[in-house]
Amino acid sequence: WLNVFLGGKRAYGSSPIIRRVTGCLCVVEAPYPTAAMQAPPEREQSRTIRQCQETRAAAWAGTEATRGPSTSPGAVFLDDAKIFEDEESADEGLYDFADSTCDEPCYRNSAYWMLALLFMLVSGPFIVVSLNGTSRSQSGDFRRWDAMQLQTGPSQATSNVTYSKKVFESIDEHNVGGAALAAIVGLGRVRSLQSALLAVIGWLVVFAGTFTASVIVTRDRDEALIPQDFRQKGTISNVTQDAMTPHGRLWATALGTGSILLISSGYTYWIYRSWAPMMSPKDNPLVTPVLQHTTERWWRTAWATVPYVGFLLTAMIPSLSGVQGYEVALTAVHNICAPLSMLFCVVMESVQLIYGENAFAYFWTDEPTPVYGPLTTFQRLRVVILLECWTAGAVFVVTQGYLFFQQENKRYWVALISYYGEVVGLSLAFALPAIAGIEIIISEEKTDVISEVREMALALLNMTESS
Length: 467
Hints:
This protein is mainly alpha-helical. The chain is 66% helix and 0% strand.
């Protein structure tokens, strides 16, 4: 305890004060040691005390051989301290992180490759989107009828026209039906904006929560803060398993807070488009997932809840090193919840972009999608970020497989690849709803609700008549 309090890093410390205090304790415990002195029998002793006794006995043996038995205790104490200093210098090798030819340059140039990784992740999506030679379509409110390309058959056109006339005629400031519809649209605006803000804040909290742990494993490499089995595990959960450390507390708080924010946001309903193949203008005149078919609503509800409950359990239940007995249950729950929650999120994001918005099929063109208009810049950004997320996840899985079969991994850089595969993948998974939320914030409507509802009904009337 004294060692840690005064800044030492190991049992008998890297501080000169600790070395001398430890040596003094050894002398006080047995003021008249001899060369033949041994540890007292039937007594449990820590590694520190045993080393103190061995060092003290060796010091007295050397003292009696060179200076005789009349040497003063003060001189022996100084010899004791010197031996402790020499042994600690030799002990530094136990915590040498440069165990392979790649570890040393990796550590020396860590600032450069960290900046390069961050630059690639941030600028990469914008660069890929800019490679598209077509003109950029501006972001807009995708729930407005004039932003949709309704595909209706001749038999349905007549019923849609009749329905649209009734809706259009009922929208008036003195009409109860029109006011009720306007109230629904207005509440939808507020809920969408709130959900977008919560999604953005949740991503920022999770992304910031990885900073301290990343600096420790990459730049600091303090053996007192990094578990000794990090080379074999290579995960952020392994580094932050102790909630009493700063990086452990920050990561647990960040992951838990971000998960709660996304659960409360309901972002799968309020900031994402309805799945195009299930979209019906008659059944869903407001173009919102809230009014979609039961199957889609079930999947969206599970998407907004299940994975983030898993992330909450991951944040609260650590994956400990050297587990014994029932501690295995903690590691099992953590190791099941973390990957399955991540997989659920990324799979549903893929379904949303591929099936629900046709973003992959229309990525390189400005042609209108079957239901909604041309893809926006934010949709294309989400496509690129999703691909980056899958790539990071694949790197993490492959590296974890290597560490599993390589029982004694001594390459620190391999553990770093696994670590950053997990951190990058998790950060990008939380970034996907944040990007969609930014689109909602930027495209916030400037007109009043009554005018918007009138425009929606009029646009529906015009499109159904033309069809």
